[in-house]
From TrEMBL:
Protein name: Peptidoglycan/xylan/chitin deacetylase (PgdA/CDA1 family)
PANTHER family, per database record: 4-DEOXY-4-FORMAMIDO-L-ARABINOSE-PHOSPHOUNDECAPRENOL DEFORMYLASE ARND-RELATED (PTHR10587:SF137), GLYCOSYL TRANSFERASE-RELATED (PTHR10587)
Keywords: Membrane, Transmembrane, Transmembrane helix
One of the protein's GO biological processes: carbohydrate metabolic process
Length: 285
């Protein structure tokens, strides 16, 4: 049997005085808030790291290694590309009556493939738009310079090719766009205007549209996807254009982000073919 003193202690444990109940409740609430703060801070830090500029992101060869999450997001059959609004598809009409196409090259600049693409474009006097990744541009400023010097236009494609950029908080989103835009613009003195912004993998959100427009960049989509980044073979890339091209088309190629020999060869075949079909090359409006 319990002594009276033991009974008192037991009663206090089972039914503690109010002061202890409050202390217990406050401790529990404190612990929950503490855990929440740590989790949120960690998420924010990851986001900051994901969007900050850093030489570590670019590989020594200058070829951007796609992150593990890039490929499945692009290639997954169940994931539909977001709808592209008509404003992103308008192409500047030329003074001639010829139908026009706009050639666009993403994920560069790359010191192997970009020069080859530029040589071909020069051969056919074809202007194009290059959607560059900021880290790549910073690693190959001479390429950025050559692209602009040869009459092509520059397009911001985020600092790190972050396909989730449209879902970040606005300050982080702004940083991805601004760092990249600055890395392109400041290759020139005075800084060059950057005309377009293209969301990596076409992952647009309304706020991303709005933010790129606010910084003076036109959201740039595409209407012919060559899927060249999947390396489907030169014929498949060429045929995708031959079957889908139309007056006012914006054609999506990649001059960086992986091996692009197929793209270069396809462009070599497509430039004369497009000319034969009567197309003139122009910039997206
Ligand atoms: Zn891209």
């Amino acid at each position: 049997m319990l002594t009276p003193r033991q009974r008192i202690i037991l009663r206090q444990i089972v039914s503690p005085p109010y002061i202890y109940r409050w202390a217990g409740l406050l401790t529990t609430v404190g612990l929950i808030v503490g855990v929440a703060v740590v989790v949120l801070a960690d998420t924010r830090t990851s986001a900051v790291l994901a969007t900050s500029a850093g030489p570590a992101v670019a590989s020594p060869s200058g070829i951007r290694a796609r992150t593990a999450e890039d490929a499945p997001a692009r290639g997954m059959p169940g994931v539909a590309r977001p709808a592209i609004t008509s404003t992103r598809l308008t192409v500047t009409s030329t003074t001639t009556e010829r139908p026009t196409v706009a050639l666009t090259f993403d994920d560069g600049p790359n010191n192997v493939y970009t020069p080859q693409v530029l040589d071909l474009l020069a051969q056919y006097r074809a202007p194009a738009t290059f959607c560059m990744v900021g880290n790549q541009a910073a690693a190959h400023t001479e390429m950025v310079h050559r692209v602009a010097a040869e009459g092509h236009r520059l397009c911001d494609h985020t600092m790190t090719h972050d396909a989730t950029v449209g879902y970040h908080e606005t300050d982080l989103m702004g940083r991805q766009l601004d760092f990249s835009r600055t890395s392109l613009a400041t290759v020139f003195d005075p800084p060059a205007p950057i005309d377009y912004f293209r969301a990596p993998e076409g992952a647009w959100t309304p706020i991303l549209d709005e933010m790129s427009a606010r910084t003076g960049m036109r959201p740039l989509g595409w209407s012919v996807d060559t899927l060249d980044w999947t390396q489907p073979g030169v014929d498949a890339i060429v045929n995708s254009v031959k079957q889908s091209v139309h007056p006012g088309a914006i054609i999506l190629f990649h001059d960086g982000g992986g091996p692009r020999e197929q793209t270069v060869e396809a462009v070599r075949q497509l430039l004369p073919w497009l000319q034969e079909q009567g197309y003139a090359f122009t910039f997206p409006n």
